[in-house]
């Protein structure tokens, strides 16, 4: 039985469930989270607008607001895991952010490729990370981003190994999901975008596959802001833990 | 002979020319200007994103930047007239803003209905304000906007009196120009949107027409932020003077 978003979120709030959201609540939009003090919010909003492929905005919340429009959720407790960055360094992974919440925090919700995974499955494209119960592998790349104020850096991508004969289909399915990163940013040779070893992801977990039969396909990833934060060094920045998203109450319009 | 945008802008810079830009440099995009200290920039950017009809973003500049991407211009001198608002009150109209410029100023360029006026003329729709050499009449309305932080209020509209039989054509022409306010927000009875007297505009100048033969058509207007500023009361906010826009170097893609 498929659980409702509100039930799943409650299991995160009670910390009964703390794993990846990949494959949960099929067809509902999932979102990356970035929370920053308002002093950084203009630069970050501009960064998202200038880099819509890795940072498609689902919602921008007002300072201090904890309940978004896209989900009857408390964004401080209703994701399975969060990461805290201080002065550009990753310092802690936590199960809620109630204790560190500040009234001047502005939260950005950014589209996520998990949203189109069910569409891939429905059209016969296997998802190895789901079968192998792994967090989807994600990689830093050499693909440059447009700078905005203090935010700059390279794109982070998620990788799915797609059977060679299904690559074109995966491309055209994901292309419909513009608010969830849309079509891939790269297909094939990982070295062309600066990835040296597919078995050593920068985020998430490595997935087993037979390189002769599949092609690595790379989508822009909402973990990109975490990479940008390492360089921008805001005093504090909170994100979801890679692979551990906000599940919204909105069924994606592309289903 | 039609002057080039750079030549016209130079005539504004030297203050040889200080009038409305309506009808100038046909087919080039014109833009409204809003300049604010960076402390207000996040709220204002969010206000624009939530109200794309009156505030379609052409460009958002970095703090302290004076040369936009859309024009080889200095935005401190190359518009014919500016207005300065302090603590929510209109205090001065000036020909340049060099003396009041601050390093933390962020400038927003917002689409303008002047951009599609040539398309209206090309398809046989007369523009009474151009014939009568008036600044297009603009009105405060009761059409509410989405609030963002300190910015809120009602929409400002520009009015063009269109011969009855040409209203549908004016609608479909302007609809193409999405980044310049697009289709009208109201057609006909001004009282329905809170306008009591078409001969008493809140901005610009009244235009003569025969009410039996024409229909008033109202487009969302980039003066809307000036109305919002009256309520938000930022310490300082600079805008173009209504009708006195930035002429960019970009030919509108809809021509």
From TrEMBL, chains A, B:
Pfam families: D-Glu_cyclase. InterPro entries: D-Glu_cyclase, Putative_hydro-lyase, UPF0317. Keywords: Lyase. It comes from Halobacillus dabanensis. Its EC number is 4.2.1.-. It comes from the Bacteria. Coiled coil: none annotated. One of its GO terms (biological process) is glutamate metabolic process. The keyword Lyase applies. Belongs to the D-glutamate cyclase family. One of its GO terms (molecular function) is D-glutamate cyclase activity. It is an enzyme of class 4 (lyase). This is Putative hydro-lyase SAMN04487936_101464. The keyword Acyltransferase does not apply. HAMAP family: Hydro_lyase.
